Please model this.
Amino acid sequence: MRKTALASAAALTLFAAPAMAQDTLKIAFIEGMSGPFANVGDQALKHFLFAIDEVNADGGAGGKPIEIIPFDNQTNPKESLIQFQRAVDEGIQYITQGNGSSVASALIDAVDKHNQRNPDEPVLFLNYSAVDPAFTNDRCSFWHFRWDADADMKMAAITDWLAKQDDIKSVYIFGQDYSFGKAVAAAAERMIEEKRPDIEIVGNELHPLGKVKDFSPYVQKIMSSGADAVITGNWGQDMALLIKAAGDAGHEVPYLTYYGGGLGAVTAMGEDAVGLVKQVSETHENADFGADHAAKMDEFEERFAPLDYYFQRIDTLVRMFDKAVDEVGSDDPTQVALALEGMELETPLGTVVMREDNHQVIQPLLISTLSDDVERTIEGTPFGFKTDPDGVIEADATRTETTCEMPNRPNPS
Model:
C-alpha cells in the first residue's frame, strides 16, 4: 500500500484550527478524545475532516462551509450530556457520535428533550456507528439518523455464514458489558437457534467496557469450553487486546467479529489470525470499488499517515447531509431531516438508501477474512482483509423489520 509521511502540520492542529468563517454549518463531534478509546475518536474525527474538506472544496453545503468541532466526552454517557449542553449553548444544531451505544442512548434522550422544550431551535443527531437496534426500533426518534448497519443486521450476515459451516458445532459469545454487547449476544442466541439449532452455545459472557488490560484469562476460559468459533462485537482496545490474547494462546478457531479491522486490531492479531478472523462491514481496504475509490483511500492515507481509510460510512453521512441541505436550500434541522428521509445516494458501495420509516441506512455489507495475500495492507503489517467468495450481501438483503413508530415526527406542513 502506498503510504507517505504527512507533508504538513495539519494533523497536529486539528483542535487548534480557527473557525473557517462566521457563517458556517457547525457539527459537534461528541466523542472520546481522551481515555481508553481516544485513538478511535481521533480516527473518526480525521475521516470527518477529510470528507468535509471535499464538500467544502466543492462549495460547501447550501453554499456554507461545514465545520466540525470536537467535544471530548471521554466515552462516558454523563460527560456526553455535559458536552451536548456545551454544544447547544454555542448554538450548534447538529451533533454526531458513534463510539458507544450507551453514549448514543443518552444523547438521543437529550436531543429529544431539548427539541421538545425548544421547538424553534431543534438539534439533529447524525449517528455514524452506535448500532444498538433499539435506536431504529422501539426507541427510534425523528431527530436521530444512523449510517451504520445495526447489530441485528450484522449478526444476520454472520449467522448466515455460520449456518453453512457444518464443521462448527459449538460457539462462544463474548462481548462488552453494555447495551451494544447485550444486543449482540441476544441477536446471536436468537439467530443461531433459528438457523442452526444444532449448534451449542457453550458460553455467553460480558466483560467491563474499556477496563480489561489482559484478556488471557477470558481466552483460556473460551478455549476450555471447546468452542469451535467465537462471536464478538468488541471494538477499540477491547478488540485488539482480545485478539492479541487469542493469538498468544494459540487459539486457532474462527473469530467472527464486527470490528476485526478496527484500529489496532490487525497489528495485535498478527500472523496467527490469518484465515481465522472474519469481519462484517460496509467496506475494507481491498474491496473492489474502482480506481477512483482507491485513489481516495491513498489521498486519505497520505494526509493522515499512519492511519488507514476505514469509515466509508462517514463519507456517506457527510455527502447525504450535504445533499439534504442543498435540496432544501436551508440548514434548518427539521427541513434537513425531512430531506434525509428516503434519500438515495450513489456511493462506491452502490446505491445507499436512508429508510424513511426508522432512519436506518440501507447499504451493502461485506464478509471478509484476514489474509496475507492482499494488495492493500493495514497498519504497516503484511495483512489485510479480503472479501469472501460469497461475502457480498446486497443492500436490500440487509433490511429488517422495524417496530419504529416515531411519535415525535413533526408535521411537514
User: Anything to note?
Assistant: The chain is about 35% helix and 20% strand.
